[in-house]
């Protein structure tokens, strides 16, 4: 009996299959949508590393000393960073006086000092959103 069972197991019948598709033509479409957002922050700091000292006028004179104040180092901290700039020592600037104050003559006098340091901070924060849509269509036939 065992031999018969073993013989039945070893005997393999060939299988034939004919597959016939049920379609003649067709299409397949797919759409993929992607949205991404980029957030960025841009900070720009403008520094002036020197100074400007100007004097203009009529009917004035100075005390005869130097026309320019002495330079001095000025330190500062901006955003946690220490900086050193060249500035003017305003205690050494010349003294200006009106030439004939009692005569009633007209005069004009302008003294301007622009020191070193941080002049401007510009911060730009923006979000850039990009959307991409891809549509794919496949056409097939038998």
What is the rounded Rg?
A: 44 Å
Mean pLDDT: 83
Count every beta strand, where a strand is a DSSP E run of 2 or more residues: 8
The number of helices is 1
Our estimate of the beta-strand percent is: over 45%
Taken in chain order, the helices and strands follow as HEEEEEEEE
Write the layout of secondary structure elements.
Layout: H1 2-10, E1 25-48, E2 52-58, E3 60-62, E4 71-78, E5 81-88, E6 96-98, E7 108-114, E8 117-141
Antiparallel strand pairs: 1-8, 2-7, 3-6, 4-5
List its traits.
mainly beta; 6% helix; 142 residues; 8 strands; two-stranded antiparallel ribbon
Please give a structural write-up.
- The chain has 142 residues and is mainly beta.
- The chain has one domain.
- Helices cover 6% and strands 60% of the residues.
- The protein has one helix and eight strands; from the N terminus they run αββββββββ.
- The protein has one helix spanning 2-10, and strands at 25-48, 52-58, 60-62, 71-78, 81-88, 96-98, 108-114, 117-141.
- The strands form four sheets. It has a two-stranded antiparallel ribbon. It has a two-stranded antiparallel ribbon with strand order 2-7. A two-stranded antiparallel ribbon has the order 3-6.
- The two termini are 51 Å apart.
- The mean pLDDT is 83.
